[in-house]
UDP-4-amino-4, 6-dideoxy-N-acetyl-beta-L-altrosamine transaminase (Nocardioides aromaticivorans), 374 residues
Amino acid sequence: MLPYGRQSITEDDVQAVAEVLRGDWLTTGPTVTRFEEAIGALAGGHRAVSCTSGTAALHMAYAGAGVGAGDEVVTTPMTFVATASGASILGAKVVFADTEEDTGLIDPAAVDALVTERTRVVAAVDYTGHPADYAALQPIADRVGALTLADAAHSIGGSAGGRPVGDLADITTFSFFPTKNMTTTEGGAVVAKSDAIAQRAHEFHFIGMVRDADRFKNPDQGAWWYEVHEAGLNYRLTDVACALGLSQLARLEAFKQRRAEIWARYNAALADVDGVRIPVQRDAVDPVWHFYCARILDGRRREVFDKMRERGIGVQVNYIPVYWHPVYADAGYQRGMCPNAEAFYAEELSLPLFPDLTDAEVDRVIETLIDVLG
């Protein structure tokens, strides 16, 4: 089965990990610090806090933003459930805004109609690696005193308006899962423009531990002393994982280029094929394409999905509208509330896209899809 996504691991990656395994630090140590500094530099010079997954990063980001009971978080349903559940776990009400009809990205006009004085965060998702319209979202959030959050699980290394992903929103989260643009095996990171938010996210992912003596409520206890002022979790990433991450970062630009070549090859081949609609790219946006989102028309998506998989092409569907999941449906969220997102979901089919995919394999996907549609 040709997968829809796959990691790219070289001997340099293996050697980087092996060097850490032979050293003194395995868990949170100097390699974590170097990795966080590198991610922060890539993301506009802001502080980065690494963690165990993209899901953990979202949980940390909401905690760092102070999200809690009585707050609302406005987000998109076209995402993995963690974009919403991180806020729900902290007690916030999640409000789903519809998407743009063509991109699948959260629609600023829909957000504008939903924000209230209770809105704490407006969370967009850089779906498929295409940055959302933060230039439109930021003033909407600012008007009600909310923060913007970019779920950039798909888009590290991209930019919009000449600004890198990580500098487009108040808070940005990354995922380093194997199928993402780069990997630490499992892993993620939070980047925040506010030092205070970054510090809260750091302490939350470090079991709530405070080591700043100036903040101790019981000072002069000894050099071993630390305090926990608010409960947190152990979401710390390891030196082993960050060694791989640093090695992968050195190849991120090459990954981006190859992903763009594959995306363009699909677009050129499928542009005039009946029964399929190709994805779009906004002006002034430089994406890192995470997957290729084809739209299968005429109600044939399930049929095409099944036939492609029968022929060894590991297509995928990204994503089920979040409020369709029983955890939200049982809480009263109704189907039909975001018609553009639901129509998008009904047609979406992710084609294989990863850096080690060859041109011959891309052509195999194209030929199989055209044959199936015929």
Q: What stands out?
A: The mean pLDDT is 98. The first strand starts at residue 47 and ends at 51. The chain has two domains: 11-249, 252-373. The longest helix spans residues 252-270.
